Each structure stands twice: as structure tokens, then as C-alpha cells.
Amino acid sequence: MKSCTSHWDELRQAIDQRGLSGLIAGSGEKVCEAIARQLEGIVEPGDFDPLMSANWAIMSAALQCGGLYLMGEDENGNQYCPLCEAAQHGHPGTVAEWITGCCDAQLEHARELGLVPKVPLVS
Predict the structure, then answer these.
(1) pTM of the prediction?
(2) Domain count, the chain
(3) What are the CA-CA distances from residue 27 to residues 31, 35, 51 (Å)?
């Protein structure tokens, strides 16, 4: 499962709108290193990546709603986009709700970790 470019861009923009872009890992290598630490039970606040966390939340919700077929590929060999699939299978509003909900949750988690101010920023 992999988000399409359009939905990935929407997710990234929603993270940016919440002031969390500075917490995004700078590379796939850094993401993999952080995941490896987490699998070993090592949790470091600097490893928090709101974009990847939001991505995993969306994938988890998509699997719960759509099932394991989402882990496969379509007839052209492309991985399924969890948000495209949700929209195509009659879940109106799901894309916006999932992006908003999971990004709001990332903001709250970043606040709990002390990585961003607890008071909402005024724009």
C-alpha cells in the first residue's frame, strides 16, 4: 500500500499547516533507523515523524475498512493508495476526514512530547 502523489501531497500540506514540517525526517534512511529503534523498544522524541505517523494511521484505518487486498497490487502492478480506495468504495468524506483527523492527532502528540507549544498558534 502506498499513497498516490496527490494524497501524499495533501497529507504533507496538512502536516505543514499544523506547523509540524520541521519534525519530518529528512530522508527515508532516517525513517528506517527510527522504525528500527522503535521495534527494539527504544523511543526517542527526536524520532517522532508526524508525516510517517499520519501515513501509518491512514494505512491502518484503510486495512480495517477495506481488508488485506490493499496490501497487494492492482491489475497494472501498482500498489493501492489507501485514500483512493476509500473514496472509490463509497466512503464519502473519508479522505478529508482521515487527513484532518490523523494530522490533528499528530499535532496533539507533538504537543504531549513537548516538541511544539501546547497553545495553538494563531495564523
Answers:
(1) 0.84
(2) 1
(3) 7, 13, 12
In terms of Cβ atoms closer than 10 Å to its own Cβ (0-12, 13-18, 19+), residue 101 is middle
Cβ neighbours, 10 Å, residue 2: 14
| Cell numbers at 87, concatenated | 473514496
Whole-angstrom Cα distance, residue 1 to residue 71? 5
Q: Take residue 12 and report the three cell numbers written for it.
A: 504533507
Residue 117 lies in a domain: no
Domain that holds residue 54: 5-112
| Residue 91 within a domain | yes
Phi, psi of 79 (to 5 degrees): -70, 150
Grid cell digits, residue 54: 499520519
Q: State the average pLDDT over residues 34-50.
A: 87
Q: How far is CA 89 from CA 18, 50, 75, 80, in A?
A: 29, 27, 17, 13
122 located within any domain: no
Separation CA 107–CA 14 (nearest Å): 10
The model's pLDDT over 21-41, given as tens digits with 9 standing for 90+, comes to 999 988 889 888 888 988 898
